[in-house]
């Protein structure tokens, strides 16, 4: 299995654009799977840099409804000549906002469902854990044993804004010879919860994780992630996007060369 970083906050290669967002290309069993679409400025240019045409994508998985993961979806669909399956949680279309005190900024998926469907998107929306294809598992809604509620991320209910539990936060698990490798978007559910969720469903060793971990400088989430990595004895850790600089440094300090830093247009092979 190969994973290519199509969009991330960091870039270290010429002709590759970075932005605050995430998009990954997963290549396995002769298929190309697009996991998230970034904020929208970089996706098509970076896919071209990686020599991947939109029509080559077998299907799309959206990790949740924030715009830094869904912003490139419409332009991606418009640059295809055929329809494509899109897997996600049904709450991706709930309006999401950032509470900045005196104002609330919309940060949800940019378009409505009908617009994406008009341009060839076929949504498969599920809350449940299921196997998308042989050895590739959609987490569905992740149980929250430890709950990390970001009070600045809100949804509108009537005339009021309330904290968004972000139940649409999903990850995928990929079965390898030695165990399950997990790919996350922002991991708003918390890493320990996510690891426990996959283990409870599959009862297989978890060998690694790649993606945004939403650690930033949040001590409770950092402590939870470290405890989860130790409990499940992860061998490979690839922090991206919203893990943040401080969060990455803490992981490096705790786990040394198990942690690998990736940037936009980097490619790795997972065995």
Q: Can you tag this structure with a few keywords?
A:
271 residues, alpha/beta, Metallo-beta-lactamase, Chain A, six-stranded mixed sheet, 7 helices, 17 strands, globular
Question: Would you summarize the structure shown here?
Answer:
The protein is built from seven helices and 17 strands. With 271 residues, it is α/β, with parallel strands linked by helices.
Give an account of the 3D structure:
- This protein has helices at 43-49, 67-70, 73-78, 113-118, 191-202, 219-232, 245-255; strands at 2-7, 23-28, 31-35, 59-61, 84-88, 96-99, 104-106, 121-125, 130-133, 136-138, 153-157, 160-163, 172-176, 179-184, 206-212, 236-240, 267-269.
- The model has no long low-confidence stretch (mean pLDDT 96).
- The chain has a single domain (2-269), classed as Metallo-beta-lactamase, Chain A, CATH 3.60.15.10.
- Helix 6 (219-232) links the parallel strand 15 and strand 16.
- It is globular, with a radius of gyration of 17 Å.
- The protein starts with a strand and ends with a strand.
- It is α/β, with parallel strands linked by helices and 271 residues long.
- The relative contact order is 0.16.
- Helix 5 (191-202) packs parallel to helix 6.
- A 7-stranded mixed β-sheet has the order 8-5-4-3-2-1-17. The chain has a 6-stranded mixed β-sheet with strand order 9-10-13-14-15-16.
- The protein is built from 7 helices and 17 strands.
Known CATH architecture? 4-Layer Sandwich
Q: Low-confidence runs (pLDDT<50, min 5 residues)?
A: none
Strand order, main sheet: write it out.
Answer: 8-5-4-3-2-1-17
The CATH topology annotation reads as Metallo-beta-lactamase, Chain A
Give the ordered list of helices and strands.
EEEHEHHEEEHEEEEEEEHEHEHE
The description of the largest β-sheet is: 7 strands, mixed
**How many beta-strand elements?**
17
* Overall body shape: globular
Number of helices: 7
> What radius of gyration results from the CA coordinates?
17 Å
CATH class: Alpha Beta
Assembly annotation:
single chain
Mean pLDDT across all amino acids: 96
CATH superfamily annotation: Ribonuclease Z/Hydroxyacylglutathione hydrolase-like
Distance between the termini: 7 Å
* Helical residue percent band: 10-25%
Strand content: 25-35%
Q: Classify the secondary structure makeup into a structural class.
A: alpha/beta
